Every structure is written in C-alpha cells, then in structure tokens.
Amino acid sequence: MSHQWRGLIEEYREFLDIPADTPAISLGEGGTPLVRSEWLSGLTGGDVWLKVEGANPTGSFKDRGMTAAISVAVHEGAKAVVCASTGNTSASMAAYAAKARITPIVLVPDGKIAAGKMAQAIMHGGKVIKVRGNFDDCLRLSRGLAEHYPVALVNSVNPVRLQGQKTGAFEIVDALGDAPDYQLMPIGNAGNMSAYWLGYQQYAELGRATRTPVLRAFQAAGAAPLVLGHPVANPETRATAIRIGNPASWKLAEAARDGSGGRFASVTDEQILDAQAALAREDGVFVEPASAAGVAGLLQELAAGDSYAGKKVVIVVTGNGLKDTVTALEHHGDIDDVVVDADIDAAAGAAGLA
Ligand SMILES: *Cc1c(COP(=O)(O)O)cnc(C)c1O
Predict the structure, then answer these.
(1) Within 6 Å (CB) of ligand 1, which residues are found?
(2) Cα–Cα distance between 150 and 37 in angstroms, integer?
(3) 61-153 has which CATH code?
(4) Which atom of ligand 1 is the closest one to the Cα of 217?
(5) Any binding-site annotation on 22?
(6) Where are the domains of the chain?
(7) How far, in Å, CA of 351 to CA of 349, rounded?
(8) Ligand 1: distance of its center to the CA of 337 in Å?
(9) Whose CA is nearest to atom 1 of ligand 1?
(10) Has this prediction a pTM greater than 0.85?
(11) How far, in Å, CA of 297 to CA of 271, rounded?
(12) What is the pLDDT at residue 1?
C-alpha cells in the first residue's frame, strides 16, 4: 500500500472547480504540517496551531495555486506562462513550468526581491525581467502581455489559482476535525485569504465542517491599503512578499472579512521581525518576514487586551525563512562568532558546559 501524498489536485480533485480531465502537474505540494505552537497556546490560554506553508516544494503556499494554474494552462495548450511577483510566485511558477516543460516569464520589481527567491526563478529557467517600478506595475504589465501575446497569466487574478489555494482550508479541517474558531494570516495581494474563505465555505456547505472561522488578516504598516481603505502608491516594508499597494483581490478579501466576521489590521516591520525571531526561537519554525505577520498580529491583539482563551486558532505561516536569510540576520543583532581550537575542553567551555 502506498502512503505517498499525491499532491493536492489528486488528493482533492472532486472539490476543485477545474476541468475534470486536467492532468495534474505536481511537485507533491500541499499536505503541509499543522504544528501546535506551545508558545502561543501558553500565551493565549487557547489552542494555537501553525499551518507551515514553507514546507511546500518551493517553500511557500504559492505552490498550491501554481499546481492548479499550470495544470490548467498546459491542458489548454499554453507553451509559456507569465507572472508578476514579489518573489514567491515567480519561484513557484518557474518550478512548475520547468516540470511542465514550458517557458516561465517573470516580471519582478527591480532590486526588491529576496536573493533566495531570485535564485529559484533563475535556477528553474525563468526568463527574469526586472521592471523599474513596483509589484503593481509588474502586474499591469503581466496582464498586458497575456492579453496581447501567446502567454498565460498565472497571477492570483487567474481564478484557478484560488482553486488550488483553497485546499489549505480543507487540510486544516481534515486535520483538526472541524474549522478553527479563528484563522490569522498575512495579506498582500489578497488572493490567499479569499481562497481560504472559499475553502472553508465549501467544506461547511458539504457538511465536512460545522462552521467557518473568523478570518483576521494582517498587512505591514507601510503597505496597508486594505486597512486604510485606499491604494498606497509607494508601499514599503521589509516583508517584501506583502509589499503591495493595490491588492488585485481587494473585493474578494473584503467579502471574506465581512462574511467571516473578521477584520484587517496592520503591524509594523519591527513587530513582524520580532515575531519572526520569536517564532524561530520558541517554536522551531523559521518563516520569512511576511509570514510572521499573523503571529505579530496575534501578539498585538493580546497586548491590546483581546482574548483567545479557550479558542482554537490557526495561524497560516506562508513561506520559508530560508528564502530571505539576509533580512532575518540583519534584525538579529550582533552575532558572536565563537571560534575555538579543536579540543573538547575548549568546546565545552565555549558552550557553557564546563
Ligand atoms: C504571496 C505571499 C503572501 C501574501 O499572500 P496574498 O495572497 O498575496 O495576500 C504572504 N506571505 C508570503 C510568504 C507570500 O509569498
């Protein structure tokens, strides 16, 4: 008997709104760990779980949407795909395009992409084009290219992406036995929150969950259009994956917020980077800066007197810390290089054992 996870299209095909005969182009995405946070459960008096999306094949949840988008694009005859990206979408698209043996074209804001993500796009054969502009400019160009040239757009404005991404909600319900009371997560272009809401609603309608969670999504203070209620012309944050001034899925995310009884809030870069460091140290989970926004949000709410006591809470941590080690270590402060001779007593002394 085989126990290998088959990738999310084969695991959840009956629940996905994609052509029934679409062959799956998969790297084994999904099936990511739901890890209990002893730290945050202790702090809240609740039951707090981390959905560790950095465990996906290219290190972020973007693989969920990409397996669906690339599978459908190839099924429809695409020979090339294009996306605008703050880094993770292009890393994922390039990998799935390589697997499908089609051409990935990547538009990124010049100078704002974490090195690990750029390396992924390049290593997977992406035609990487740096744009003098921000993510929102890149998305406009990608839409234009897809309109006028024979390339398929795989940004989350492609509704097939959300079909893949909603499986995160399925996995959480399947693991916990029901939907949590609350889900907290970062939000940038707003596709992921919208997708989770689709997934939770669908499982409730099917009777696989008795309820839907309250969704709370957190932006970086320098890139918080959803909180402010208007686009931000020059979004700025160290959390580059959520450095977006005009979210494409704005309306869908507002519907998810209102339908779930949730809210948007913002956290500062300092809070985000502190939460990233604390999560790594306290729980052993190293996420990229943007991915820590949900944790930073929880800590902010606790400080403001909100309570999660007795509640089941899921925090989606969206991407892997290895993607951007530079930002993490810059925030860490001085790192003492401890160098000793190759001697047991010296090592024991330096380690504080002796
Ligand atoms: C894309 C991304 C986000 C934001 O998701 P949206 O769907 O754009 O809201 C958050 N964290 C990471 C690591 C990402 O790659």
Answers:
(1) 60, 62, 88, 156, 186-192, 241-242, 288, 290-291, 318-319
(2) 46
(3) 3.40.50.1100
(4) 9
(5) no
(6) 8-60+160-323, 61-153
(7) 5
(8) 34
(9) 241
(10) yes
(11) 8
(12) 60
Q: Rounded distance, CA 8 to CA 69, Å? A: 12
CA of 349 to the centre of ligand 1 (A): 44
What is the pLDDT, as a whole number, of residue 18?
A: 98
> Does an H or E element contain 161, and which?
helix 159-165
Residue 178 is classified by DSSP as: S
How does pLDDT run across 297-344, given as a tens digit for each residue?
A: 999 999 999 999 999 999 999 999 999 999 999 998 888 889 999 999
Q: What is the pLDDT of residues 238-295, one digit of tens each?
A: 999 999 999 999 999 999 999 999 999 999 999 999 999 999 999 999 999 999 999 9
Equal fold, 8-60+160-323 vs 61-153 = yes
SS3 182: strand
Number of residues that this document lists for the chain: 354
Confidence of residue 213 (pLDDT cuts 50, 70, 90): very high
The C-alpha atoms of residue 275 and residue 254 are separated, in whole angstroms, by 26
What mean pLDDT comes out for the span 151-169? 96
C-alpha 242 to ligand 1 mean position (Å): 6
Q: Which amino acid is at 84?
A: A
Q: How does the average pLDDT of the chain come out, rounded?
A: 96
Cα(302)–Cα(194) distance, integer angstroms: 25
Q: What is the pLDDT of residue 328?
A: 94
Pocket probe for ligand 1: among 63, 166, 189, 219, the residue whose CB has the most ligand atoms within 8 Å is 189
* Fold that domain 8-60+160-323 belongs to in CATH: Rossmann fold (3.40.50)
Q: Is the separation of the CB atoms in 188 and 87 below 8 Å?
A: no
